[in-house]
Amino acid sequence: MSNTPGLPVGVWTKAKASGDNGGSCVEVMRRADDSVLVRDTKDQGSGPVLSFTHAEWSAFLDGAGKGEFDLS
């Protein structure tokens, strides 16, 4: 679980920068079974939940941090 530091196990978490804007965010949950779940805050109950391994999630965060997904 060291690949996702600071993210608690079994708790849905959204970015601090999203503030009270709960309808326009995604939430992330780190699980003990080597997965990271992602869901839309607008559709928490019945919407889809994406599942990634810790390695996949870390690679995504690394790419996002480097600007690989920036639209320009």
Automatic annotation (TrEMBL):
- Chain residue ranges for the region called Disordered: 1-22
User: Which Pfam family is an annotated match for this chain, by its short name?
Assistant: DUF397
Which top-level group of life is the source organism from? Bacteria
Where in the numbering of this chain does the DUF397 domain appear?
Answer: 11-64
Q: What is this protein called?
A: DUF397 domain-containing protein
Q: What species does this protein belong to? A: Nonomuraea guangzhouensis
Q: What is the lineage of its organism?
A: Bacteria, Bacillati, Actinomycetota, Actinomycetes, Streptosporangiales
